[in-house]
Amino acid sequence: MAEEAEKMEVKEEEVKEEEEKVEPKLGVYICTGCDIDKLDIEKLVTVAEEEKAPVIKTHPALCGKEGVELIKSDIANEGVNQIAIAACSPRVKWDIFDFGGCCVDRINLREGVVWTHDIDEHTQELAEDLLRMGIGKVQKMEVPVALEEEIDKSILVVGGGISGITAALAVANAGYDVNLVEKADSLGGWAAKFSKVTPQSSPFREVEDFNIQEKIDEVNANPRISVYTSSKIDKIEGQPGQFNVSLNDGAVEFKAGAIVLATGWKPYDASKLEELGYGNPNVITNLQMEEVLSNGFKADSVAFIQCAGQRDENHLPYCSSICCMVTLKQAKLIRQQNPDSKVYIFYDHMRTPGLFEEFYRAVQDDEGIFLTKGNVKKVDINGGVVLEVEDTLLGENINVKVDKVVLATGMISSMEGVPTTKEEQAELAEKGIEFENILNLDYRQGPELPLLKYGFPDSNFICFPYETRRTGIYAAGCVRQPMGIKASMDDATGAALKAVQCVELISEGGTTFPRSGDIDFPDVFLQRCTQCKRCTEECPFGAINEDEKGTPFYNPMRCRRCGTCFGACPERIVSFKGYSVDMVSTMLKAVSVPGPEEEKPRIIAFVCENDAYPALDMSAMHKLKYSPFVRIIPVRCLGSVNTVFIADTLSKGIDGVLMLGCKYGDDYQCHFVRGSELANERMGKVQETLDRLMLESDRVQVKEVAITEYDKVPEIINEFVETIKELEPNPYKGF
Amino acid sequence: MEYVEGDPKFVRRIMDAGGGTLKKCFQCATCSVVCPLSPDENPFPRKEMIWAQWGLKEKLMADSDVWLCHQCNDCSSYCPRGAKPGEVLGALRNIQISQYSFPGFLAQAFTTPRYIWAIYALPILLLAAYFSIFGFHIPEGEVHFSHFIPHQHVELAGMIMGGYIGIAILVGLYRFWTAMGGHEIRAKEKSEFVDVGTQVKGGFIPSLIATIIEILTHNRFGKCGESKYRYFAHLGIFYGFILIFIGTNIAFAYLLMGRELNLPLTDPAKIFGNIGFILLFGGASWVIYERVVKRDTIGIGGYFDWLFLGTLWLVAFSGIVLEALRFANSIAAYWIYLVHLVVVFVLLAYAPYSKFAHLAYRTIAMTYAKYSGKDTEKTQL
User: What ranges do the domains of chain B cover?
Assistant: First the structure.
């Protein structure tokens, strides 16, 4: 580990040497198109002159061919390599203003100034401040250099059920090697145990055969796939592109670039369902029913109890989403095997999402299948099986006598009960409870993917499909959410694609979502590290390991470039080439602070680039206005806002600090999982700063904004400005 | 302990009787909500739909609510699943008729399409027997039906038939009343809400009177939203029959007075009869047209419905043609007269087993609903 750290440092030095050879030269380019010329452009040019920019040019359409050529010729002929473009938002035309080898900053005069403000003295001052800030910023930027490391592009797929098989085939067919690890002695998982399955194809009305053997044969015949059955993972160490995987007590070792976790599900323990008669041979689970059906089943009457031990605080609180379809399938099969049979289905709600509604319709049409909503109060197993059902749609409480009862029990993630941290492992060991880990990651943060509610690993499917909190590891199928065969196959294909994407990005030194392809990894000045462990604890992706003393060790390929460590570090020793403490400090210094008598408050807004900043751009497109007293500094994540910036800002006489970040909590929308949450947690420390400076607590606020709330962001900003106006001006003005 | 048991065979029977879509219901209760006739307490047709899906014969056969439905089909056209509750209730009414009518085997013939030949064969055979006794000859000269078959013979046959119909229907109604639990209604359960415009409250007779007023005014039918036509069409058929009945009775009186019955168009008996036939023909044609055109939204009905509707239409149509031919003095009038006698026989003699019986069953079910206090709606004149 130490050796690798040394290697990294050597490399960094090399990079520095290389850069020192190039003389920095600033060029400022002001676009006057898209209404920007409503501003006093001459005054802006004067500002650039005061900042001693050697090259200053204005153009009516910088993004046009002529404008771009103008910049390119200055790069070639004048040696300009620090380019400040004062035009539109950095979120648009980024491909046009991409000048390889140069540092570029985009000063947002269009969306950030002229489209969102009435043109007056204050707005002109805003534009001038933003220009100064941008000029300062670009001069502090450096061109990042991609890490060049030996990368293994093969993919490890954990779990050989339908999800794992599908993922393995998808990866192999895309031209990558796969190691498929399965703990059982054969592939196939649950799907191999089902004789018939729910409809898989249009018109989704018929029970179908499912031939998993075909897929298993395909896996076995594929030269790119190595299958390890009866195998367990001892340890996975390293980082994406360089995982070292060891199986079966070290008997097998190989490398992997990325991992698909497809370990599937396990059934809910039906022995907890005694109140529904479980234990009696005539009361079985839906899983047992699969077996019974494949052996040929004859019963005159069968009752299904839906949501058995599900959507119930005493059992599984969630819906397993597939049991309704399984019951409909089994009901149909019972009727097919014995046309004189009667099948009763007691449900709380029939949940047949999407096209499965067609299957529900088809099964409903069978005259021997009787459905009703109802609450099964009791299953009497003394002398025949009698169900007492309350609140039925038949308008009364009923008793139904049947030969067999099937409990539609639910799915649990295979991760449930698996300890995900070293602390949990120790706790279980202490209690003498046996446990088995799945991935056995050699990570400081623990051996498994972190879990969210109900024991499912994190995968915020709406915002960040398949991404987990461990870079390069993708959860697919029932391990992350209960689902059926078809959905598992779709899910596994998606996860396989993400794994392939990951190894490709990593091989170019880039990171994955959301800063996909960003090569700028954190640079840590370890000599000043105090081993406070904040960075290792706060990193949402477990990218930083630490040695015994607590000195952090960065795994750059695990890093997602969010800058949470940068925000956490009290010593401010973490920085990126394009995002550093020095850079933000320079920007803060560039803001002009008028004296208290002028009644021109100044406010800094640290705005998350992922949700809040695009929301602001959208409000600009809707021509919504907000106060010109606010200077916006885009940040990678609120997690990357170091509390020191707030102290710097306030001690400079700026009146308030607003932080706009993503929603956090269980349904978080934070692209870096914990950034906005951490920003809130850090507010405690901010409070100390405020107390020390004897300033009001209202001066610093964190607000959550979703990307769709473009109509609300200007309101949030304006409200904050009103709050600040009600306070006395910051007494530090003029110091 | 009593057990509820699903009955696939009875489900199939309802499906075959015109409720083929019943299994599509997913119990959302849109039908009960949109129904302009359903009461707030225990509304239909949602509950009948699930009973039908489970094949709960006992409940369905004792259910008077199916007769409170006038098949406006608002439910069917608003049903999100295409379950057509209006059609299902129609099928249930059909099954109730055949369940209770006497004798049962005749009812069976009416629900089984393959016996349609027998239904028509009987009147033809009866005519053949009549002619074999009295001799068959087409009279010459001006068309006089009494020269072909004496009116006294027709009237006599009609009276025998009427007596039979009355007895058969009464037996059926008694069975139905018992199944609904009409005998078990205790005094305190009896409705006190029946208001027929006077102070009369409760009791069987006031309930029956209120029901008859409701039928005469068609005010329940008038509440239909989706199929307003049914109100007018049914009104036409209903009063068409009444006018024909009046006309027939005048003619019968003439007969008793010994008058020759080749009446002119201006005779009161003819005026009643002709207006009646026009209303009957118009109403029946309208219903047929709407059923066919709106078959997808409100449903086309089943065999049982069409056997009645078709016969009804034939009676009206043959009656009109018959009269036209008579005034045109065409010999063909005699042949059409035979056809007319056959279809009239089919319509009337089988009334206890066909949909025609709804006249009696609906009356008794509505009376029951009022008598038992289920139907608390006030009847207004």
Answer: 8-98, 104-371
